[in-house]
Amino acid sequence: MPDLGHHLSHPIDLVEDIAQHHAWEFDRITRDDIAMVVEGLWRSYTVTLSWSPRTRPCACSAHSRWSRPRTSGGAVRGAEPDQ
Questions:
Q1: Cβ proximity of 36 and 47 under 8 Å
Q2: Is the pLDDT score of 82 beyond 90?
């Protein structure tokens, strides 16, 4: 896990280090904005974080795209067989 102690100055730097640690695809849009894609087993999550030094909270927007994982033979894992 990345060293979190040196991120007291800017929270998006912390998020960027976490994304790098997990090998998530990300784009540092501006100093105060980052967008990343987090791959799950059944979904891909697109997450955008924005930080405002004036108001301090971090705004988050997240979207997901659902897809069924497939086994190497093309069958859908967890799917019931046809009857």
A1: yes
A2: no
